[in-house]
Amino acid sequence: MDTEARRGLLLISPTALYAVALLAMPLAAVLAISFATQDFLTIDWTPTLANYAEATGEPLYRQLLLRSVLIAGAVTLVTVLLAFPVAYYVSFYVAPSRKSLWLFLITIPFWTSYLIRVFLWKVILGFNGVFNTSLQGLGIVEEPLSFLLYNANAVVITLAHAFAPFAILPIFVSLERIDRSLLEAARDLGETYLTTFFRVTLPLAMPGVTAAVLIVFIPTIGDYVTPRLVGGPDGLMIANMIQTQFLRLNNAPLGATLAVLSMLTVGLISIAFVLLTRRWGRTQ
């Protein structure tokens, strides 16, 4: 290698070693444990596929994984659909001198702990919470609504609020990179505002939308705090079962197996989504 290549390799080496130490090695350890067996505190490292047979054959695990995918998909859909108008407004209608202020305001939820935000949603959606009290005060309902909390709906609402800034920011960046003259050219050629949006703005913003989808979908499918606090029995996800296997049932191999299967599921869905968006982008 020449001097410049060696210098570049030297610059990335600390980051690469850091990533290997804190990302690759733990994942490799989880993969290795998934092929072992455990008897209380004793782990037998003899390779076996029994954990994978149990994880794929037990209906409860399949149901939890499917529910996790559906809840994460719903959270992603709601979050991106709500985030896009906000990002669009900030990019196209806010004065350049005030965009930094708007982005600053969007990040305000990060100032408080994630757990505090989840507990606040329990207060809002509770049987005697803010939402039910307001509806009763306005005379819209006579009795508090019981379906707002401790189900999948509460999980979707809470996670959508928590991950909204993660979706707004990448979409905003993509919208900022769009050359405004392209939109003017589309309008000059007879396109309406609506067709200009779908044929010019949206395709050019798809990298940001794709990033937002992945940023929201990947962590939400593995979230276990929110389902535990606001999900109830019908809102529990696969991560809750993984935590139970590791910390309560002393069955780390099965917990690792469920984690590996979850990662494979997330990876396949993410790759399929990226390929579909690229194919859609080429057809536009």
**Structural class based on helices, strands and sheet pairing:** mainly alpha
Discrete helix count? 12
**Whole-number tally of structural domains:** 1
Which CATH architecture? Answer: Orthogonal Bundle
| Largest beta-sheet details | 2 strands, antiparallel
Number of strands: 2
Helix content estimate: over 70%
Name the beta content range: under 5%
Which sequence of strands runs across the widest sheet?
1-2
Rough outline: globular
Distance between the termini: 42 Å
Notable features of this structure?
about 280 residues; mainly alpha; 12 helices; globular
What would you note in describing this structure?
- The chain is mostly helical and 284 residues long.
- The chain has 12 helices and 2 strands; from the N terminus they run αββααααααααααα.
- Helix 3 runs parallel beside helix 7 (152-176), helix 3 (59-92) packs across helix 9 (193-220) and helix 9 runs antiparallel to helix 12 (252-283).
- The two termini are 42 Å apart.
Summarize the structure.
The protein has 284 residues and is an all-alpha fold. It has twelve helices and two strands, in the order αββααααααααααα. A two-stranded antiparallel sheet has the order 1-2.
Q: Any chance you could write out the topology, listing elements then pairs?
A:
Blueprint: H1 3-33, E1 37-39, E2 42-44, H2 50-57, H3 59-92, H4 99-106, H5 114-125, H6 130-137, H7 152-176, H8 180-188, H9 193-220, H10 225-231, H11 238-247, H12 252-283
Antiparallel strand pairs: 1-2
Helix pairs in contact: 2-12, 3-7, 3-9, 5-10, 7-9, 7-10, 8-9, 9-12, 11-12
